[in-house]
C-alpha cells in the first residue's frame, strides 16, 4: 500500500529531474530535486512504496537515465501511466523501476489516495475499485526482480 502522487500528460525528463541537477555526482544528491518544477515538496513528502500515476507520454524528452533513477532512489514502487515515452520505459526497466501501463487509472484517482499494486496479477486496487493494467512479460519481471538489466546481466 502506498500513496499516489499524480501528474498529467507529457511530463518530460527535465520536469522529473532538471538538467542543472544532473551535473551532481550521485543520484542521492539529485533525488531531492525530483519534480521540483511541478511539485516543490515532492521529494520531502514521498515515502518508499509510494506511486507516481500519470496520464499520457510520461518521460518524454531527453533520454537521461537519471530521470527513472531519482524516482527509484526515492523509493517509488512503480510509475503507472496511460502511456510512456519509449526511451524512458526502457531506461526504467534497465535500472529496475517498474513502469506499468494502466489506461483507466489516472482519470479515476486523486493525489493522496492509497493504492495497492499486484504486478503479478496486473491489477491496481484503489478506493475500493480494481483497475486492470498491463502485466509485464515474465522475462521483464525477472529483470525487475533482480534490480534491473545490468544487475540481471551480472548475475
Describe the fold and architecture.
- This protein is α/β, with parallel strands linked by helices.
- It is built from 7 helices and 7 strands.
- The chain has helices at residues 13-16, 27-30, 42-45, 66-73, 86-95, 138-145, 149-154; strands at residues 2-6, 51-54, 78-81, 99-101, 114-118, 123-126, 129-132.
- A 7-stranded mixed sheet has the order 4-3-2-1-5-6-7.
- Helix 4 packs across helix 5.
- The termini are far apart.
- The mean pLDDT is 93.
List low-confidence stretches.
Answer: none
Helix content: 25-40%
What topology, given as strand order, has the largest sheet? 4-3-2-1-5-6-7
Portion of residues in beta strands equals 15-25%
Figure out the total of helices.
7
Number of strands: 7
Largest sheet report: 7 strands, mixed
Topology order in helix (H) and strand (E) letters = EHHHEHEHEEEEHH
Rounded average pLDDT: 93
Indicate the structural class. alpha/beta
The rough form would be described as: globular
Distance between the termini: 30 Å
Radius of gyration computed on alpha carbons: 14 Å
Describe the structure concisely.
This protein is an alpha/beta fold.
Secondary structure blueprint with pairings:
Layout: E1 2-6, H1 13-16, H2 27-30, H3 42-45, E2 51-54, H4 66-73, E3 78-81, H5 86-95, E4 99-101, E5 114-118, E6 123-126, E7 129-132, H6 138-145, H7 149-154
Q: Which features would summarize this protein structure in a list?
A:
155 residues; seven-stranded mixed β-sheet; alpha/beta; 28% helix
